Recover the amino acids of this structure.
């Protein structure tokens, strides 16, 4: 029972264009969403987050959009750069029935390739 | 100046052996986590300690035992290793604020465990 899903295993875009990575979730109790970026042989690094009380958060080239009614969030990268090529994980946090413990549930990741 | 470090980075061992993975963070965080990334690339929480107290304990075999000697360290000991334990194990840490809010998690580089 995967509560956080990233249905696109991979995405390829041209440098300078927009990259849009998508994430769907099933648990309406999630209150906080995060995106992590992971390079090979390294741990995930935090990229950007959004609280469930907002529908948009922007940080430089990265913007996360949250659509609670659709239980969907997306990460936009504009403009995309070759250095953005990595695996992107969506994660959700919330009350899982035992209080807020900080537990994150991750999607399976989307591999982004930005071509020069 | 490494924030979250893990040792060893690679671990190859025989079935039935007992092994430990160490994790240390120098961020002053009070919560630490262990995640397992399996062959399907899913990142799943295993354990979490807050101020040396176990707060998350997922459905993990008893062969896995976390130990937190202090807030900066969370070690993972695995008894009687099995083939299915082969995975990449990530340590992470975060800081709580406002009493119960768990902030972004910072990950270590991972330990690739191979059980032969």
């Amino acid at each position: 029972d995967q509560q956080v899903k990233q249905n696109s295993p991979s995405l390829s875009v041209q440098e300078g264009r927009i990259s849009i990575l998508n994430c769907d979730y099933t648990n309406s109790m999630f209150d906080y969403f995060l995106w992590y970026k992971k390079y090979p042989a390294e741990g995930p690094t935090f990229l950007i987050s959004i609280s469930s009380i907002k529908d948009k958060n922007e940080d430089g080239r990265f913007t996360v959009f949250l659509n609670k009614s659709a239980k969907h969030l997306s990460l936009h990268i504009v403009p995309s750069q070759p250095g953005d090529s990595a695996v992107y994980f969506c994660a959700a946090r919330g009350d899982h029935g035992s209080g807020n413990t900080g537990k994150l549930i991750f999607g399976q990741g989307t591999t982004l390739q930005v071509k020069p | 100046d490494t924030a979250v470090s893990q040792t060893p980075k690679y671990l190859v061992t025989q079935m039935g052996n007992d092994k430990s993975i160490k994790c240390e963070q120098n961020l002053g965080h009070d919560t630490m986590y262990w995640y397992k990334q399996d062959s399907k690339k899913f990142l799943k929480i295993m354990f979490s300690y807050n101020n040396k107290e176990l707060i998350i304990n997922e459905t993990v075999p008893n062969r896995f035992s976390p130990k937190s000697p202090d807030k900066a360290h969370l070690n993972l000991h695995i008894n009687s290793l099995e083939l299915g334990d082969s995975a990449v194990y990530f340590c992470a840490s975060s800081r709580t604020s406002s009493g119960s809010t768990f902030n972004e998690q910072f990950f270590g580089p991972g330990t690739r465990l191979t059980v032969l």
